[in-house]
Amino acid sequence: MDQQTITDAVRMRYSGIAAQLLADGAAERCCDGPCCCDADALEGDRISEGLYAEEEVEGLPLKVSLASLGCGNPTALAELAPGERVLDLGSGGGIDVLLSARRVGPTGIAYGVDMTDEMLTLARQNAAAAGVTNAIFLKGDIADIPLPDGSVDLIISNCVINLAAEKEVVLQEAFRVLRPGGRFAVSDIVIHGGLPAMIADEAAMRRDLSSWAGCIAGALSDSEFRDGLANAGFTDISLEITRRYSIDDMPTALPAAFAALSPAAAAEVVGRFAATFVRARKPV
Ligand SMILES: C[S@@+](CC[C@H](N)C(=O)[O-])C[C@H]1O[C@@H](n2cnc3c(N)ncnc32)[C@H](O)[C@@H]1O
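# S-adenosylmethionine complex -> structure
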């Protein structure tokens, strides 16, 4: 499957979700898989549910929370200092950019990059409604980040690298735009231990576009993530599981390749997928 097909499927899914939110149709938004739902929109979905403390999102517009489609809370886990420049890869409705903008204060800047026009419109509306003036949303592909070399102190991202068609290039781009000594602090779904042999046709799983756009089929294994970061030049790489999933957390977007597995085997495979906080550093 070519990279353009994956990117188009991902763009279509997330532009559709953003368009629904822009039309104020939060209750009807697409919710057929992970990275697409929260508890307000679909009872029982646990991927994006409860990631942010109430006091954290206080003062942010409702649509920011509704548009939260991540699988972690990178801003809470990352160290952020006043005056720093932060970049969020795949910023969606902007929740992590707005939270970062607060943390870096008026002398800092929080950038968000997203490839979807509707998400960028939503994020800019959310920033204006929140009165945040140090957030800048840029249109672009995270495999070709529209910022100069060495221009940011910290890269965050929330459940987006698993959607990217060219993950190695994304990690190289992250390395390029970080200043020497800059940090990479990303939440993503990772397959710990990789896929077991019982997934007889891994290629079929990877071709499952709906599961890819739902953040499952495109997930890297822990060793692939480490290797990709190391190959890009990063050091001090660590992975920390922040939320494990069970089969009930992913009711409808399981890749078709899972269908042949017994319930016990499917549960074992799903148990390898976990929201993970990935840290690394660009050497000085
Ligand atoms: C799962 S949502 C996460 C949004 C946000 N990070 C959050 O936590 O709510 C994925 C977002 O990444 C964007 N995205 C996916 N692939 C991208 C790419 N290759 N380049 C830029 N944006 C991308 C989508 O448009 C969407 O807004």
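# post-check
The longest helix spans residues 3-22.
The pocket of S-adenosylmethionine is lined by residues 7, 10, 14, 35, 68-70, 90-93, 95-96, 113-116, 119, 141-143, 158-160, 163-164 (CB under 6 Å).
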